[in-house]
Design a protein that fits this description.
10 helices; Glutathione-S-Trfase_C-like (chains A, B); GST_Zeta (chains A, B); Maleylacetoacetate isomerase (chains A, B); about 10% strand; alpha+beta; maleylacetoacetate isomerase activity (chains A, B); about 220 residues; homodimer; isomerase (chains A, B); 4 strands; 4-stranded mixed beta sheet
Chain lengths: ~220, ~220
């Protein structure tokens, strides 16, 4: 069965799924979808047929297409449980999911390409206002994330001693924060976890600069 | 062990968790947090201590507090598996999660109170522009959601013959769409599922107008 991940080098949602595939050692090919070129390749009829939301990523396995990065990762984790991306204990699983969702619901969607395009298009906001918007939601989300990590007593990873879905969400979000010059000094636990994850091959190989469509 | 759900009658994220508790028949008390009164009770020191994101819902069980509605629901489903809110098959579970996340990531967070307050405050947008923004993201999300339902051949529920996390996300979002006068004519499957769910006691009793803090 052929496994294809539709991806864009700079998409943080796609990056999460690239890490999952590499951590689990699952053979796959990458199909780049350029989100800006030609008005956005995600809007092509071919791509819309497999992802009606017209966003990346999409995982295709044979004739099955799965969308939404966290749905893809939980699916991969259930079908290919080793190494696990969630702990075994229900409360620890809840901790992982609440951290992951803090980023995947409350930071990333508010800052993604289509939102910034709406702010600068229909709402006529400046690049400066769009950048301030972007940084505002990262700071608000990271303030809460750092407090949650402190309450958990996190070390090298968000929860426990192995990468979980929370780390898969955090590392791409930290990359975006740096790209938009967010001061990370108030977030020592976030910075430490990001630095540790970025020593692992699955995180290194999946980063934007290592992608076939990197610019 | 005492179980308390911190909730606000009109919060759609809180409504999802109210449905889950009722479907599973789990004894609990509701602790209303008024999101507007006194500058927002979610910003009080007492509440911030259990939810550093300063949003509802939060589930408290004894001295454990869990945030993020989908993390709460998956936790309840793992600890109290009957009736299940996810199917058994991994692909069907992925279908439920991708539908749920289409709402929980790509519609709801973009439209929640703090975003609308930022649009009207720092960005100086009018009530009309904020309302247009709200309707735009519901329409874009529902367009994709309806196509996904069609591809699944959905009937009375989003996936299969029982309520799942996808339905728990959909019904509160439909309520919001109606509140903002979104034309639902293009979404017959969404309307049908919403109507069917709203015949079930857990959905009826958890709706905003039935809450102790309803206005």
């Amino acid at each position: 069965m052929e496994r294809t991940l539709y991806t864009y080098f700079r998409s943080s949602a796609a990056w999460r799924t690239r890490i999952a595939l590499l951590l689990k050692g699952l053979p796959h090919q990458l199909a780049p979808i350029h989100l800006l070129r030609n008005g956005g390749e995600q809007h092509s009829p071919e791509y819309k047929a497999i992802n009606p939301q017209e966003v990346v990523p999409t995982l295709q396995e044979g004739d099955i297409a799965i969308t939404q990065s966290l749905a893809i990762i939980e699916y991969l984790d259930e079908v290919h449980p080793s190494p696990p991306l969630l702990p075994a204990d229900p409360l620890a699983r809840a901790r992982v999911r609440e951290l992951a969702l803090t980023i995947a619901c409350d930071i990333h969607p508010v800052n993604n390409l289509k939102i910034l395009q709406y702010l600068k298009g229909p709402l006529g906001r400046s690049q400066q206002e769009a950048d301030d918007w972007y940084r505002h939601w990262i700071r608000q989300g990271f303030d809460a994330f750092e407090k949650k990590l402190a309450a958990l007593g996190s070390g090298d990873f968000c929860v426990g001693d192995h990468p979980t879905i929370a780390d898969l969400c955090l590392v791409p979000q930290v990359f975006n924060a740096r790209r938009f010059n967010v001061d990370l000094t108030p977030y020592p636990r976030i910075v430490r976890i990001d630095a540790h994850c970025m020593t692992l091959p699955a995180f290194i190989e999946s980063q934007p600069s290592r992608q076939p469509d990197a610019e």
